[in-house]
Amino acid sequence: MADSSKILDDISHRRFNPLRNSWVLVSPHRMERPWQGQQEAPSKSTLPEYDPSCYLCPGNARAAGDANPKYENTFVFVNDYSAVKEKQSNYTAEVGCDEKSLLLLQAEAVKGKCFVICFNPKHNLTLADLPAPSIIPIIQTWTTIYRSNLPPANPHYLPASNTAAPTSQYTYMQIFENKGASMGCSNPHPHGQIWTTTSLPEEPSLELSSMSTYRKKNNSCLLCDYASTEIKKQERTVFENTRWLAVVPWWATWPFEILLLSKSCKACLPQLGESEVSALAEAISQITKRYDNLFETSFPYSMGIHQAPLDATEEQRLASHLHLHFYPPLLRSATVRKFLVGYEMLAEPQRDITPEQAAARLRALSGVRCYREVL
């Protein structure tokens, strides 16, 4: 009898994503089709160490006029063009609206605060260029900002020493990085963003709901169970150390998508010990170097951390499992990307290369040295 897992390498099929309670269509045979569509310009990898026109380099003036300090490590500031406001008018639905309008035309005010975090003073050093120990201060900065926005009664709360206290208790903190112009990054200086909001955004809300339902039904953690399954199978593993597991998930939408999981059930960054932070830095270094080595280009992606809400209920805290998503768009080469259009927008997500094939390609690459180091 044929191995059922091998059959999936050749047939179109759907895979279930238990984190979002959704499906993705997999079409392995479509990698054979010719491509005459749009091609991206390869990411530049010859940036200067310092750019006098860069808004994020040390000592330079930012777009809004403030000057950056001559920072030597990470540097955090409130985004000059934040997506949400800390102070604004309150909103309530119009009095006297008819029932259908109240039902169909809903809106809610969202307050918040957005930060920018420069990963390194050098303009040309991405996460893939940094040794793992140099990524530790970035993780520590993420953790410090998360802790400073927790409710004061939370045992992990620690007021920030260099940023003003939040004016409201925010519900969620989304930490992320957009790398590369094709992912909407407006400045090549290596940096990430942190958005805090009074609302719980859609993606973490979907995941929390699925993880909570799974926990109630199975009396276990969804991502703990998934990590154990992947460790046993070793079919989609890209990298693992004693604390973290990086896989191309069974349900991946993006061609070389990676899910980075804590092997122990930690709800948020402040719960990580020193060895777990070091191991996380190693895992991020391994992933980003393998990405750059895949097509020998500065590999674009969106990366984000999902963890417990800032004002998590007990149920949400117990359901949460710290993890990172890496969503890279490149498919065939440094210039051909995956587009989520047509069927993907109107029906459901679709991918060509299987997660197993993608993982095998990434696994075979070096996660220790970036190709630029040997040019």
Give descriptors for this structure.
9 helices; alpha+beta; 375 residues
Task: Explain this structure.
With 375 residues, the chain is α+β, with helices and mostly antiparallel strands. The chain contains 9 helices and 12 strands. The protein has a 9-stranded antiparallel sheet with strand order 3-4-6-5-10-11-9-8-7, with helices on both faces. The chain has a 3-stranded mixed sheet with strand order 1-2-12, with no helix packed on it. Helix 3 packs across helix 6.
Helix/strand-derived category reads: alpha+beta
- One letter per element, helices H and strands E, the order comes to HEEEHEHEEHHEEEHEHEHEH
For the sheet with most strands, the description reads: 9 strands, antiparallel
Q: Low-confidence segments, ≥5 residues, pLDDT <50?
A: 34-40
Rg over C-alpha atoms, rounded to the nearest angstrom? 21 Å
Strand order of the largest sheet: 3-4-6-5-10-11-9-8-7
Query: Please, how many helices?
Result: 9
Task: Please give the alpha-carbon distance between the first and last residues.
Answer: 48 Å
Task: Tell me, rounded to a whole number, the average pLDDT.
Answer: 91
Give the percentage of residues in beta strands.
15-25%
How many β-strands, per DSSP?
12
Instruction: Characterize the overall form.
Output: globular
Proportion in helices: 25-40%
